């Protein structure tokens, strides 16, 4: 039986995203926002990479997938 993202997952059954899934879109959008934020932070820091990292960390928008972040040792195998 195939599990869909909207149905409860049983640990012994993998989740299979439907063909029209937006998960890949979320990742691409998150990466693009991070890139733009990093470039702006580097400009604001005048090229100082350490300062740019601080600015980036303070201004980075959370990723949609962050709420599903599960530590590696808690993930089903």
Describe the structure.
There is one protein chain. It contains two helices and no strands. The chain has a domain at 23-63. It has 77 residues and is an all-alpha fold. The two termini are 18 Å apart. The longest helix is centred in the middle third of the chain and has 22 residues, at 23-44. Residues 1-5 have low confidence and may be disordered.
List keywords for this structure.
2 helices, mainly alpha, disordered N terminus, 77 residues, 0% strand
What's the overall average pLDDT, rounded? 80
Rg of Cα set: 17 Å
Task: Name the helix and strand elements from N-terminus to C-terminus, one letter apiece.
Answer: HH
Given the helix and strand composition, which structural class is it?
A: mainly alpha
Question: Count the helices. How many?
Answer: 2
Distance between the termini: 18 Å
Shape: elongated
Task: Put the structure in a nutshell.
The protein has helices at residues 23-44, 49-59. The chain is mainly alpha-helical.
Helix-strand layout with pairing:
Blueprint: H1 23-44, H2 49-59
Helix pairs in contact: 1-2
